[in-house]
Design brief:
Distance between the termini: 31 Å
Largest sheet: none
Number of domains: 2
Number of helices: 4
Structural class: mainly alpha
Number of strands: 0
Order of helices and strands: HHHH
Mean pLDDT: 88
Oligomer: single chain
Radius of gyration: 21 Å
Strand content: under 5%
Shape: elongated
């Protein structure tokens, strides 16, 4: 995957130099919302789950059309927010 290269004009750099701290913070917040979170490399974990619970979870995730590990990650993210 190639990384995009961004070029800045002298005018753009001059405009950015005049931004207030609040404008900079707003830009960063808007950028985060536009781009989303930067994905991090996932860390494998080991967890003991009763086979019947795991099978039921996998079945429900499959019916929803989502991989069960993705669903686990979604549920974990919702819980900590």
């Amino acid at each position: 995957m190639k990384k995009a290269v961004q070029y800045f004009t002298k005018e753009y750099i001059a405009q950015c130099a005049n931004l207030t701290p609040n404008q900079i913070l707003q830009f960063l917040e808007d950028y985060k919302n536009l781009v989303g979170k930067v994905p991090q490399k996932c860390k494998p974990i080991s967890i003991k789950i009763e086979p019947s619970l795991l099978n039921a979870f996998k079945t429900k995730a499959k019916l929803e059309g989502i991989p069960y590990q993705t669903k686990i990650k979604q549920l974990m993210a919702e819980w900590v927010e």
